[in-house]
Structure formats: C-alpha cells, structure tokens
Design goal:
By secondary structure, the chain is of the alpha/beta class. It has 16 helices and 17 strands.
C-alpha cells in the first residue's frame, strides 16, 4: 500500500497537485506498515490534513483489496462536523479520481466507482447513519464536533457506533484527524494513550507538517499568543470557551417589529427581571405563550440604566414595572435572590408581587442550555431590542474537565443584563402546557386586599 500511495502522489503532482509533505508520508507509511487499524493525528491548522486524507481515502478505497460480499458495497465514510464540511472532502476526492482517470458516478451524498463495489460517502457527526460496511473511516476535525442541540462533542458515542462498521473487513482502516482544541474530548484522550496494539498516534505543528509555512508565517496569521499556540503550535487548551449562541441563531429568531407585542387573550404570561441600581441595567422581560403553540415570545424587553452618581430608586423602578405589566394582566414578577426581602417589601407598597429564588450555577447552566435548544428548534421569538441581542451574544459557555458553566462577562459597560431574565422566562413558559394560569399563593394573600387583578401568568 505504501508503493500505491507513492505512485498516486507522484501522478497527482504531475497534474499540478502539491506533493504530500515528508512529515505526512513518514507518519502514514509507518501506520500502514504496522498493520494497525487506527491512526489518531493531531496537527496544526493549514497542515495539509485534508489534502493528505483525501489521497489516502482514494488509495485505500481503490486499491485496498477489500473482500466485499456480493450485493454489498464497501464504504469510504467521511464524517465531519456537518455534511457540508464533509462535502468539501468529497469534492477533493472526486478531483483526485478525475485526475487519475478512475470512473465514478454520483450517488446520494457521495460517488460510486464504476468498476468495483466501492462508494465514497459523506456523513455529519451523528448516530443517524451507521448501517453500512466500511473499508475506510475518516473522521475529520473530530475535536470540533458538536451536537446541534446540546453543544456537546458526540465523538465517543459516534465512534462507538461507527467502529463496528469496519468489523467484517480485514484490512479496514480508521483515521481520526483533527487540529487541537481542548483537553476535554475523545480525540485528546486517544492521543494521550499513545501507540498501542490497535492504534498509531501522530502530533505536529503546522510548520512541521507543512514546510511551505514557517513558524513566522503562522505567527503573522495569528498574533494572539493563546490562539497561535492552539491553532498552529498544536497545543490543546485546558478549557473550552465559546459563545452560547451565534449571531445567525439570535438574528434568526428576532422579529423585526413591533417592539412590544399587544396583549393576547388566553395566552400565558410570565414577567422576569434582573435588578440593578448602579453599574448594570435593571432589565425586565415579559414573555408569552399562546394556546397550542410551542413558541415562547418575548412580548416586551425594557431596561432602566442609572446615571453616573445617581443610582436607580428600587421603589420607582418597581412602580414603573407594575405599569409595564398592567397591560398584560400581570401583577407579579420573578427575580433572583439579590436583595430579595427588600424588593418584596417595596413591591408590596406599589402593589407588585416580587417572587424571588436562589439561582445556583447548576440552574444557570440548565436554563442557558435549554434556551439554546429552544432557539435552535425555532421555538423562541425575541423582541427587536439591540441590547437584548448584544447581551445574548455575549453569554459564554465554558467547558473544563470539572464540568460546564455559564459566564455573563462585562462588555461595553453591560453584564449581559437581559440574558438571565430571558432564560428564566423561557424556563417558566417553556415546558408547561399553554393556557391561562394564576398563582393561588399570590391571589390568596393579596388578591382581595388589592382588588384581585387577574394575574394571567405566574
């Protein structure tokens, strides 16, 4: 097989393809000669991973000498973060097949060789498609795989389902390739195991793997030292920090108008707030859910910001909040534990019931993750408020060996002030059946004394 790869590489160079680098040849040839099934490689960005793996895919698929059961086909499976990402590898493979004069025809999500039962197919990193016979399994950028709903790297589960597809093919191979990301995923753990009876491992910086780029070139591409060490010097980070949501996701669920929604009879409402009197904004969110509809809509998002040297008056703000809630039939608002007793006492004076709860780090993570799932499922509509958008985009999700957490960083004088009440509102309305609801504890205690305004929320 080493000679086959050398011949393939020489033929491609004659057609104008760049040659495989000496670093890649040495690692691939060592792996092929050992006869071990699995290669795990971690290399810097722009190191020639994709180009090399596409050539290897063709070599192992076309000349692997695989004994395929009559009526079956052997699959060269390219698994990536998304099917679109994997499709890029397929385009490179078809270019190689054309250059070598190997006939193929298109099939769903792949191409099939004309003269032998081999098909090259692309897959996203999920458990959806595992019922095939695999002759070569290429898992691309495996450290960066993410489940679309949870955001968790599904590599351990996906590999557990994919490895058996190679079981009946004697010389089937598996390549798990990625650039460095963090010390938190299955790819990192496999690299740490080193060479075993089952696998060969390889690690290299960008300039080691790809001699057309120097270390100086890479530093010019990425001046940030931490990113340079991860992306080009091939050093995984000890923790992974990322935005909870992308701008595309937030913008996709934000309506253009109106700024505030009108009251809807029989809809279910909840009001939440994040109090602040000095540095941060005091934010209020009103959310609603109509009968028979899974979408939770942010009907209104309002904030009050203190001026320098002039803190907000809690009584004045709670009175204003009572006025904001009145059109929605609400006279209660949910808040975290900050100044709980004082706010509850002031709320009584302005006829507003302030319901507080102690929010733990676990609750904060669960609410944020649930919100992300609902956004991606198309079950959230946001009010068109610029600071609401900015606050949601600034929320960070951090994963380390000890677990995950949510951060509300201070950016531009704000502290993601709209994010906590939005997450809480979604929790209050997200899973319960739609329809009007009252809170007996509030109505029993205050309803008769205040005239019993019907509260259509919590």
């Amino acid at each position: 097989m080493v000679q086959r790869y050398e011949a393939l590489d020489a033929a491609l160079v004659a057609f104008g393809f760049p040659p495989t680098s000496p670093w890649w040849k040495a690692r691939i040839f060592h792996w092929l000669r050992t006869g071990k099934r699995q290669l795990v490689a971690r290399c810097g960005r722009r190191s020639g991973k994709s180009s090399t793996m596409c050539r290897l895919s063709v070599c192992l698929g076309v000349w692997g000498g695989h004994a395929i059961t009559p009526g079956d086909v052997g699959v060269v499976a390219i698994v990536s973060i998304t099917r679109d990402e994997a499709q890029q590898r397929l385009r490179s493979i078809t270019a190689i097949l054309k250059a070598l004069g190997i006939a193929f025809r298109p099939v769903e999500a792949g191409v099939e060789l004309v003269d032998r039962p081999i098909v090259f197919k692309v897959f996203a990193c999920s458990l959806a498609s595992v019922g095939f016979t695999c002759v070569f399994l290429l898992c691309d950028e495996i450290a960066r795989w993410r489940d679309a709903d949870t955001g968790v790297n599904p590599a351990t589960a996906v590999l557990g389902s994919l490895r058996p597809t190679t079981a009946t093919i004697e010389h089937a191979r598996i390549a798990l390739i990625s650039s460095a990301l963090a010390t938190l995923d299955a790819h990192y753990d496999l690299i740490e195991k080193g060479e075993t009876d089952y696998q060969v491992t390889a690690c290299g910086t960008t300039w080691e793997c790809n001699p057309t780029l120097s270390e100086e070139d890479c530093r010019a591409l990425e001046p940030d030292d931490a990113l340079f060490r991860r992306e080009y010097q091939n050093e995984p980070a000890t923790e992974l920090e990322e935005s909870l949501l992308t701008a595309h996701e937030v913008d996709g669920c934000m309506r253009t108008e109106p700024l505030a929604l009108p009251f809807v009879v029989n809809a279910r409402y909840a009001a939440t707030m994040d109090p602040a009197t000095r540095a941060d904004a005091w934010t209020l969110v009103v959310a609603c859910r109509e009968p028979g509809n899974r979408i939770v809509r942010i009907a209104k998002a309002v904030e009050w910001q203190a001026r320098k040297g002039s803190p907000l008056s809690p009584e004045a703000i709670l009175r204003a909040i009572a006025g904001e809630l009145a059109p929605y039939g609400l006279n209660s608002v949910h808040s975290d534990q900050a100044s709980a007793d004082a706010l509850a006492d002031i709320g009584r004076r302005v006829k507003l019931f302030v319901q507080t709860e102690a929010v733990t780090a676990t609750m904060k993570l669960a609410r944020a993750d649930s919100f992300r799932v609902r956004v991606r499922a198309g079950e959230v509509e946001l009010a068109p408020v610029d600071n609401l958008r900015a606050d949601l985009l600034n929320v960070r999700r951090v994963v380390s060996r000890t677990g995950a957490s949510i951060l509300f960083p201070r950016v531009g004088g704000r502290h993601c002030d709209f994010a906590p009440p939005v997450f809480q509102a979604l929790q209050l309305l997200g899973s319960a059946p739609a329809g009007p609801m009252v809170v007996p504890s509030y109505r029993d205690e205050y309803g008769s004394r205040w005239g019993g305004m019907p509260d259509r929320g919590f």
